[in-house]
Amino acid sequence: MRKGATMKNIVTDRHSQIQTFLWETHKDLCHWFDVWHVAKGIKKQLLALSKMAGCEAVLKWSPSITNHIYWSAASSKGNTEECRQKWMSIANHVVNVHEGHGDAFTACLCDELVEEREWLIKGSKAHKELLIIVNSKMLLKDIGNISPIQQTSSLEAYHKVELYFAPKASHFSHKTMKASFTFQCKLKKTASAKERWGATVAHLLPKREGW
User: How far apart (Å, rounded) are the C-alpha atoms in residues 126 and 60?
Assistant: First the structure.
């Protein structure tokens, strides 16, 4: 960390090595987890579950469940137990039970649904398997530390662009990369960039689409 800088909070993914490093060297920092990484992992598990016999209905619930993790973090404003109970309430919500979730979150805030929903049957195979995902010990341990505001999305986007122009397997000089980034930044700042520079960009970046 830069000398002289004061840092109180940090947002990262849930990598165990990062957690260990911060715990051992910066115990004074409040370590938050990026919600996108958590939601991505949950969505992957839900899609795998929906391919199991008798669990196909989970696929339709996948978007709502992943969105629920974002809402749980943002609406709890850093309250660990409230965030945890809001997240766990989804296991009741999918079987059409909207009350009795916990002391910190007693009932769902959802309005009456206009469209018909394919509710899961409580105790069914799909519901039991979903409970395993929702009530995972590791997930419940970390879910209260999901960042309610700050996220790593902008940094992730920067790294994605950086790797596009400078793949790790190839060597590029600093001047070459700087020229490429400068050129792209100027294009985005120009409203009519596509019309004015389209031919040039197509020549320089033949693999790029949508220019």
Answer: 12
Instruction: List pLDDT tens digits, range 142-179.
Output: 887 888 777 777 777 777 777 777 777 776 676 766 77
Per the CB < 8 A criterion, the answer to whether 14 and 33 are in contact is yes
Q: What is the pLDDT of residues 62-106, one digit of tens each?
A: 999 999 988 988 888 888 899 899 999 999 999 988 888 888 888
CB 146, CB 75: distance < 8 Å: no
Instruction: Answer yes or no: is 1 within a domain.
Output: no
The torsion angle over the Cα atoms of residues 165, 169, 173 and 176, rounded to 10 degrees, is -20
Token pair recorded at residue 136:
């995972």
Q: Strand, coil or helix: what is 198?
A: helix
| Residues 68, 111 within the same domain | yes
Q: How far apart are CA 171 and CA 155, in angstroms?
A: 22
Q: Roughly what angle, to the nearest 10 degrees, separates helices 174-189 and 153-165? A: 120
CA distances from 161 to 20, 67, 75, 156, 208 (A): 29, 26, 31, 9, 12
The reply to whether 93 falls in a domain is yes
Can you give the pTM of this predicted structure? Answer: 0.67
**Mean of pLDDT over the chain:** 78
